[in-house]
Amino acid sequence: MQNTYKENDLQNTIKEGEERVKSVVADIDKKVKQGQEQIQKAIADVDKRLHENPWPIVGGVALGCVVLGFILGLSKRN
Hints:
This protein has two helices and no strands.
């Protein structure tokens, strides 16, 4: 008779664990989808701003290339 109670308790514990895991997985999936939506919104916003005014980015890239070229040029002179 005690084995039956232990088996039932074990089965109930396993079922509760499965339900908790399913709940956690569902919550994680929901948060991942929310994160993906936020990233897509941010990318769309950046894309819109770049299309409206690309010159600061072009200037920043050009400046970065000049600085990188200067640094690499110094290392060869030594």
